[in-house]
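QUALITY CONTROL LOG
STEP: pairwise intake check
CHECKER ROLE: data steward
CRITERIA: each record must contain a sequence immediately followed by its structure tokens, with no blank fields

ENTRY 1 OF 2
RESULT FIELD BELOW
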Amino acid sequence: MKVSVCIQTYNHEPFIAQALDSVLMQETDFDYEILLGEDDSSDGTREICREYARKHPERIRLFLNSRENVIYINGRPTGRWNFCNNVKNARGQYLALLDGDDFWVDPKKIQKQVSLLAEDSRFVLCATDSHTQLGNDVTRQADVSENATCRVYGIQDMIQEYLFRTCTVVVRREAVWPIQDWQMRCPPLDYSLWLGACTKGKIAFLPEATAVYRIHNGGIWMGVNTIARRRGTLATLEEATPHLGGEVQHVLRRRKSELLYECAHLELNNGNLLMAIKANWDAFKVSWRDLNVVFKCCRFPVFACARKGRYLAGRIRRIATGPKCWYL
């Protein structure tokens, strides 16, 4: 078996048929299987999965999971037991990943990616650009260049930025399996897997949209607020630090500091002055040898207090000039 397509789904009744159809339409010169993990949905997702498995028994292997196996991270349910079970049972040399609420739009998606990985042993993972769908509106990612060729990314690039959506990934199975204990503790599991894969080879990125990433209220990661997402990325980098080698430690320190500095501004925007100052101090401690970091972090308390002062002055002024002054 050349490719195992791993689909994890839970409460995706409006979306799962489109996801499965987008995989079944793939045109390849090799055989591929679909591992469909259904996490005991409370809507009609399980019935749809059973129907597709019945119609395509030669292609789809259906795993009907129990909610008792769900792994919680920071008190939130995740689909990682489902994902791990799919990967464990995969027979393919390559894994293609897709959540049940996303879908592919290119019928030659996995053919292109597998061909690239087979031709160049430097690469352990191939991702592509994607569209984003919010409601009925579909937008393309802003960093796409129509004439761009295949880009090559390494571990430092992956530390600095989350470069692609999981629904676009095809990866060598041995690059992500077995999943390490530190990766299982990370809030976004997929990001930790790509960091680990980067220690074994390069990432190829094809600048063509082959998939659609859907944003909706039921999405696990998108349901988390911005500060929690920053903190989740930071926690992943903290877990990854001992496993990524000394040559990237300066990049890790700088990225952690940037994330903490972003958290400081987000906390300030939410009116949490003390939390903002603490996050800024943590950013300084992480990367105090970097002059740019030192400058930003030293400037932040002045900016934060001035902003808080303007807010309080405005509030006092509104009270004093209101129709019923507090001193009357």
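ENTRY 2 OF 2
RESULT FIELD BELOW
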Amino acid sequence: MSLPKKIIAAGFFGIMICIYATTAWSGEIIPQALPEIDKVKLKFDANSLTLLNVILGLIMFGIALDLRVQDFKDVIKRPKAPLIGLFAQLLLLPAFTFLLAYIWMPGASIALGMIMISSCPGGNTSNFITHMAGGNTSLSISMTAVCNAVIIVMLPANFAFWGAMHPQASQILKTVELDPFKMLFTISVLLALPLVLGMLTAHYAPNIAERARKPFKIFSVLFFAAFVVIAFSKNFQFFIKFISVIFFIVLVHNTLAYGIGYLTGWLGKLPARDRRAIAIEVGIQNTGLGLILTFSFFDGLGGMAMMLGWWGIWHFFSGFTLATIWNRIELPGEAEG
């Protein structure tokens, strides 16, 4: 086995050991929050929900400015890397998230929050972070294009399936009588319109799209981060009480997501640039969509909303940190990365 592969294998076992160790440690942390966090309902009025819908629309419009019909054609012409990446993002991440939530049993609302996160599509900064990390930006864009097209069906399917399988989370799903078809309709409205408008703008007004692309990405990220901070400030007493638990779970869960993406690419014998792109696509999630669904269908359930909100802040930090590290690693040959 070559040195890079030994390093990757060691990293894999290191991640598994860390998860095992933190799982054991979590027994000292997570149960302290269980009785209360499932009863928390975050304060969130109709105006705030409308604002979040607008922000998500801007995020999705910004994503669509990077998409072309050619991106979908590229997947058909060269399907191996995108399909491996989508397999990791749409199937493996929800499955391993369920496994982690099943081992931890962190409480119903937190488990549902973890499953919702894993069911969401990639975030709006994944393409930029992939470029910054020296990854395959074209692959990242192709994955974003296909994922946002199929997520309309895959999100409610994954969420309903894995949520119903979890002993704690399933109790909440029974209580709210979640209708997957109603969720599918909501997601269709939230995603389809801004995606279509963005792609039409990019196609028929490429100069405008080029000038708008970067500002949309920057301001949508800033607006979302500001929104989460303000939302947490309105629920400051809950944030202070539960942040240590939420921080710990998001840290491990997000690390697992990056690991799943990278290792799936490695097992698929993809080049280093492709593995980096897939890792970032799997690790950066559109939690804005998850927050809207949480407040629309679960009345701002505490564990879910706090998981999604904190992930939406944390993955920027972890993504840019990972990209900075990878950008400094320039090893010769395709086997490395």
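INTAKE CHECK: passed for both entries
DESCRIPTIVE NOTE, ENTRY 2: The chain has a mean pLDDT of 80.
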